[in-house]
Amino acid sequence: MRRQFPLISRRVATAAVTAALIGGAAACGPEKSGDGAQGGGAQGAPHKGGTLTVLNREPQQDFDPARLYTSGGGNIPSLVFRTLTTRNRENGAEGTKVVPDLATDTGRASEDAKVWTYTLKDGLKYEDGSPITSADIKYGIERSFAPELSGGAPYLRDWLVGGDTYQGPYKDAKGLDSIETPDARTIVFHLRKSEGDFPFLATSTQFAPVPKAKDTGTKYEEHPVSSGPYKVVKNTGDGERLLLERNPNWSEETDKERHAYPDTIDVKAGLSSAVINQRLASAQGADAAAVTTDTNLGPAELAQVAGDPKLAARVGTGHFGQTSYLAFNPKVKPFDDPKVRAAISYAINRTSVVNAAGGSSLAEPATTFLPNQKSFGYTPYDHFPAGKTGNADKAKELLKEAGHGDGLEITLTHSTAQDFETSPEIATAVQAGLKQAGITVKLEGLEDNDYKERIHNVAKQPGLFLAHWGADWPSGGPFLAPIFDGRQIVKDGANFNTAQLDDPKVNDEIDAINKITDLGAAGRRWGALDSAIGEQALTVPLFHPVYKRLVGKDVKNVVISDWTGVLDVSQVAVK
């Protein structure tokens, strides 16, 4: 399922990590997102210089703007690739706003939001000092359509006129007529349908400029031409080691979002969660100026951190727009009966589910499908109030009305992988809660690849399974449309509308909201639509994840936005 960042298992505590956490280290920093940017990490005002080390599990593979699946700037890629727009580099909710990057504004829309026009800033340069032009952005987008450079966000293929058949500039040098560049600073996009969220999409790396003369096709990832504050000087092991140094032709005058304090950024990947957290906690040598962008603390580690105020001060808290939920397939009995789906909704014990996900420090109970953030249009509702531990009496009442007065036997499909959203522990917690309402749950655990293939295959999809969805940007559109727009049902590929809902009223409302360029007004409509769909009990929202991550003792200027939920490496300074 689409999401910006991998959620690393919370269950990573080891004896070595625990010993390191007990040792502690001196520092002060943010305990929650939204703290002042100057409050994070080592004392004193941030300044330029030094080396920032990034310790990650996942390598930064396919380091080509066409192939990266990132939005909002995307942390490490954001240091090398600038885009038409980017996310506001601020803590908490302020960080969910889209702001200009290479462009002078976030885009000028036609009345129906089908045509978007951007003007580039003056003085933009690549790492070699050559100017960045609108033609370079057009070419960068077009090469993302090439089959050999697949992997990036898929929206442009669906949104741009002619994008559904275009195969990239290597096969069609003419390019896309739906992207116009009337001069070196102007670029115009013609869309097949209204898309008020286009400024959000323009944050994805497909909108990074690529000079045609420097394009080396599939080898471009080895040395992509930088438009950002850093350039690639080493890329080994397909992103396992990525060394970045300053781009001398980057100008802070044209880039108000990235601070680029360190001289060098050294990204080391392929490490285990336990090793990463141990090194960050010990903070010895280069690790004192280290961070991670993909590894969380686990429950046991957090318990140790809580006992050490100095170490706890180095824990940053982040929220990313994601919901973990139970998904129904109404084509499978007994889930075709709304009363059965409602009964299960009433019976769910969210307290035990949250505990299985690592506790309240790592998961927040959910009763809405949209994440509990204003930018998504979050509108509180609870159509099937289960309380903290489930409403067994109401569930039994509905089951009796549905003809299951003697109880009900069902199967819940989940992954056997230790991915906390769909893990055996979550499934077991659901099973125990439903038992109180007379619902006997048989657990069907599948190897992760088999699980994903089953739940996204219309022909094989089970009746009840664990699922999760994370947004590519903080708006209701990329959250609700892929799951509930009937026109996005895929019968011969990966289908995410698992309820197979094809309601003309829902489809029409999605189209109507997409015409709105006022994000506040659009958000209110997304929230109302979420509530209306929620009444059908097509899903049972379970929880929203919370990120808890350590930083080294010499790290300062920690900024964690609600767009990504993780530390923004473009803001970090080192002592």
Give structural attributes.
alpha+beta, Dipeptide-binding Protein, domain 3, disordered N terminus, 15 helices, D-Maltodextrin-Binding Protein, domain 2, four-stranded antiparallel beta sheet, 575 residues
Task: Note down, in words, how this protein is organized.
This protein has three domains: 1-58 and 270-319 and 546-575, no CATH class; 66-227, D-Maltodextrin-Binding Protein, domain 2; 322-545, Dipeptide-binding Protein, Domain 3 (Dipeptide-binding Protein, domain 3), CATH 3.10.105.10. 23% of the residues lie in helices and 17% in strands. The protein contains 15 helices and 21 strands. It has helices spanning 15-23, 134-143, 155-159, 198-201, 273-282, 299-306, 309-312, 338-347, 350-356, 392-401, 424-435, 448-455, 477-484, 504-514, 519-534, and strands at residues 51-55, 85-87, 98-100, 108-109, 115-119, 179-183, 186-190, 230-236, 241-246, 264-268, 290-291, 315-318, 322-328, 363-365, 408-415, 439-446, 464-470, 539-545, 547-550, 555-556, 573-574. The strands form seven sheets. A five-stranded mixed beta sheet has the order 8-9-10-1-11, with no helix packed on it. Strand 6 and strand 7 (186-190) form a beta hairpin.
